[in-house]
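A student in our group prepared the protein record below, which I am reviewing. I have pasted the whole thing underneath without changing anything:
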Amino acid sequence: MNRDLNIKKSFPPVVPERMKILILGSMPGEASLQAAQYYAHPRNAFWPIMARICGFPEGLPYHERLEKLRLHQIALWDVLENCIRQGSLDSAIREARYNRIDELLARHPETIKIFCNGNAAYNYLKRAFGCIFNEYKAEALPSTSPANARVNFETKLQIWRSKIAPYLNGE
């Protein structure tokens, strides 16, 4: 198989004018890459969870969901800029290159919290950006990926809500 076919590239960050929270994934999966949308896999729990936390309908078009996150001062990005990976599993990632998360944070000094969507994103962030890691008290939340089937939706929702909600609406 041609190795170049397995090069995956992340999306640009989705950043509000003022960024209070940065949610980082590791690298978009195949469904997301094909749709050119963050968390596009139909069984990924990210959008249903964020809809409940931020109070918007799950069925909104993608650009409207992004706008709802922006209104709550939530940004999305991935720790990795590109990598070699066959399929969608984080465990298959090879030769990873990192996005410049430090530069994004420097442009947004109002940022107060980083959440990682899963342990892979958390571990990549810690490995590449240890200098900023503690300043933002980055936390790993249970992965919303359908590959994380050992944690059910309600438990994921409860954990995500308990961590993110205190930062919303000036709380």
Remarks:
- Residues 4 and 46 are 29 Å apart (CA to CA).
- The domain at 3-167 is CATH 3.40.470.10 (Uracil-DNA Glycosylase, subunit E).
